[in-house]
Sequence to fold (360 residues):
Amino acid sequence: MRELPLNRAFTLLEPGPVVLVTTHDAGKDNIMTISWTMVLDFTPVFAMTTGPWNHSFAALRKHRECVIAIPGVDLLDTVVGIGTCSGADTDKFARFGLTPAASRLVKPPRIEACLANIECRVTDIIERHHVVVLEAVAAYVDSEREERRTVHAVGDGTFIVDGRRINRRRMMASRLPPGI
Amino acid sequence: MRELPLNRAFTLLEPGPVVLVTTHDAGKDNIMTISWTMVLDFTPVFAMTTGPWNHSFAALRKHRECVIAIPGVDLLDTVVGIGTCSGADTDKFARFGLTPAASRLVKPPRIEACLANIECRVTDIIERHHVVVLEAVAAYVDSEREERRTVHAVGDGTFIVDGRRINRRRMMASRLPPGI
Fold:
C-alpha cells in the first residue's frame, strides 16, 4: 500500500462504493459492511449512517476511530458475509480469512486485501439522524492490485460493478478543487 | 413515468449515482448537480451536502422542497454542464433543453428526460455540516427508457458508468427490509 495524499482521499468515497469499516474494542478487531456514506468536505470529511443496530457502533462511539476499507469486486462475497453476521459472536477477520494490518494513526486495523484504506477519527455524532462524522487522517491505495473495480449496493440484494470510466476533466476544470 | 412504491425509492440513491436536484423560487425553476448524497433511512430519508455556495440552496432553505432526478449516462454532458454554470444567471432548463414536468406534491418540477424522479421535502438542515435532510414523498421511474445505466462522479473530473449487476439476494435475505 502506498500513501495517498489526503486531499485526494475523497475520490475514494465520492463514487459511492460499498465499504468495510473496521473498529477495535477490548482487544478485538471488528468489521462492518456499510453502504450509506457521503463526502462532507474535500479535506476530507465523511458522513456514515450507522447506529446501535450495528455491533461496531459501540466501539466507534467509545474510541472514536475507524478505518474505511474499500473492497474490489473480487471481495463481494466477503463483503456480503461480513454484512450478514455480527461481531458480537464472530471474529470476522478469522472467519473471512482477512489479514489486519497495523494502522499508522489509529488503533483499528487496515484490511490488506482491500484496494484502499482510510484511517479516520470520529469528530461528531449527529444522534437524531444516526450520522457519524469522520475526519480522514491517513489514506493508502494498493496500486499493484489487479482488480480495481468497486461495487455499489442497490439495497435490494443486488450490486452494480464499476463499468467504464469517462473523462470530463476539461469541462470541469473550473470546479475541481486545487491539486486534483 | 410510473410511480415507484416509496419503500423502494432508497434503491435509487443507495448505489451513489450523480443526481440532478430541482428547486423553485420566485417563479423560476433551477437545477443543480449533486454527487454528495446518502440514504439515512429506508422510509426513505436522504441526506445531501450543499450550502450557500450553490445558488439553489437559498430556494431549498426558503421553500423546503426539491426533486431529485436520476440521469442516465446519456445525459452526462448535461449533468456536467449544469454543474458548471449557475442558476443566478442561467435558465438551466432552457439552456440544456430539458422539459420540466409538474410534480404531484411539491412545486419544483421533475425532469422528464431522467430515468427516475423523487419528490422530496426538507425536514432538517444540519447547519454545522451543510447537510440537508430530505423526506421522499413520491417517486417515479421511466420503465420505458432504454439507457438505464447511471454514472458515479469520482470527484476528479472523471465518472464511472454502471457495469454489470450481481445478484446476492439469497445471501442477504435475512437483512433486506420487508417488501424489497
Q: What stands out?
A: The radius of gyration of chain B is 16 Å. Chain B has five helices and twelve strands.
